Amino acid sequence: MDADELCRKLTEYSKYENVNVRRAVAGSNNLHNIPEECAYEILSRLSEDDDEGVRWDVARNEDIPEHCACEILTRLSNDDAWGVRLVVAGNKSIPEDCACDILTKLSRDKKNVYLRREVARNPNIPKDCACDIFTRLSEDDDEYVREGVARNPLYAKCR
Question: How far is Cα 140 from Cα 107, in angstroms, rounded to an integer?
Answer without folding.
Answer: 10
